[in-house]
Give the backbone structure.
Amino acid sequence: MQTDIEHIREIETASHRGSETRDPVVVQSWLRCLKKHGLDPAARGEAYILPDAALRQHRQRSEDLIRIARSGIDDLYKLVAGQNYVLLLADAAGVTVEYLGEGTQKDALRRSGLYLGAEWSEARAGTCALGACIETGEPLIIHQSDHFDISHTGLSCTAAPIYDTAGQLAAVLDISLLSSPLIRTSQSLALNLVRQTARRIEMANIMAESRTDWVLRLAGSPDFLDVDPEAALRLDEGGRVIGMTNGAARLMARSLGADWRRGASLIGRPIEEIFNLDCSGLEQLTRQHEARDRLIETRDGYRLFAHAIEPRRAPVTHSVPAPRLTAELSELAGTDPVMREVVGQAMVLARSDMPMLIEGPCGSGKSALARAIHAGGRRGPLITVACETITGEEAAVLFGRGDLRSYEPGLISAADHGTLVLDNPEQLPAALQARLASLLVTRRFRPLGAMRERESSARIIVTSRGLTANGAPREEFHHRLAATRLVLPGLAGRQDIIAIASKVFAAALGSGVAFDLPAAALLTGHKWEGNLHEMEALARTVAATGGLASDKLLIGAEHFPAHMRGQGSDAGPGSAAMLSHLLAENGWNISAVAALLQVDRATVHRRMARLGLKRQAKPVARRTQP
């Protein structure tokens, strides 16, 4: 066993004269650590685990990859179960986004960095399998004293890269041991296992993306061609490459005399440039023909067996007309199911010129919804009337004054061909309310002092806090607008309250924000009697007093006012808003949410069922009956 001093001296010697005993990949990584990253071989580094908020962002960006890779990772872990191996799936930045390890070793694994959320880039951790794999793009072993950092020399790590279908490094799969046999070749089997698993993950990924395109799967043997191919190409209808596994990229590059690492230069190449084959020949490579007969040859003379999979034919569908939300309405809807239903109704109503009633508590977004409806189709102006500011003597402000020869237009005429928003008309004098009620039905009004009525081409939207015992709109408003009434939920009742808070705080702080769990619990448990007005005021207060300074701010409960921290909350981790937030932040990974809440997966599923939380699915077209 090499001592720490011997290890440090060997790195220093290798930096000057190279090494005849170390793998060249290891020596090159040592040189990068010294010269590129400025690391000190004598320094003993500690494992770096990302904060929860940062880890959630990495996992969310890798959600699709984790979903596809999980089955392969689970199968690999079963093969090495009971041998103290740890499996890590890291993204292209070297951050572990998925982890499988023995529960009895949890503390030791976390200390060593073989844990969820650990960063294993070369710049952070020195020479390691994950970091070196990211740098080289090749499968490799970093065994014990191959590591640069002396705190990692007891580890044995083996990694293989995973590429996306555009030829870019997407992730690295690593299998590691806290302690292993001294002989480096003891990890040769582990290297083959991670290489094969990475290849299968890439194959699953390209198949998931290729439902409507040709896929050409390749193997050196006909016996395993249909069950375990070595490479695959995704082809468009013209026979051009639009996706590939890494094995296919290397095959193409060799045939074309190109660099496989430059994936973009391989995309778009016709199949004829790579194989002695044209697009019309793909039909002869389907499973209707014997595998041994499906032999093709690359332009550089390499022979392979091929399996061409035809595109899936899209079923004949009967589309159900449904309005597509405008960008403004979609932004307003968020992910709250109640709000999305309200906004969907608004989109339907926006197609017509019918007057509309928007009700909701103060600060719930009534004016914002009116603006979004207007932006979805009206070309004229948007005129908002604050009705509480108009007295009986100021009727001309609304209706105008005079007749055809000397007409002074009011706000109703100013909104022609646009939208007229009447905010809180219950505050108007009764006589003016009566005149407006007539406008809702006939779309006509009479200016002050005029003998004749004028016609209005404006869409009318009434916003109100709702019918109450005191200060409610006249019955005419309610009855005549009942069919087009939209009721907005209060902020405290929305499931996407954390997403709303992120936008509000980002606007106040001038930077993207994230909330730790205690802060998120306060936000979801607060009553928000002032709704968005109250949240905007809180964000301005935090911006002025929070002492935050960063490109990506992490806001904790300590940044909130004392009265808010001390008021208590009925919304624990099991509330709809909090659980919805955790599910969204973790890409609906039930295992990750269960770990955060320190409960089992079944408990999370039960809470989701009780609260009616479901992941939003894309609409599925209905198949027509033959």
Q: What stands out?
A: Residues 468-473, 617-626 have pLDDT under 50 and may be disordered.
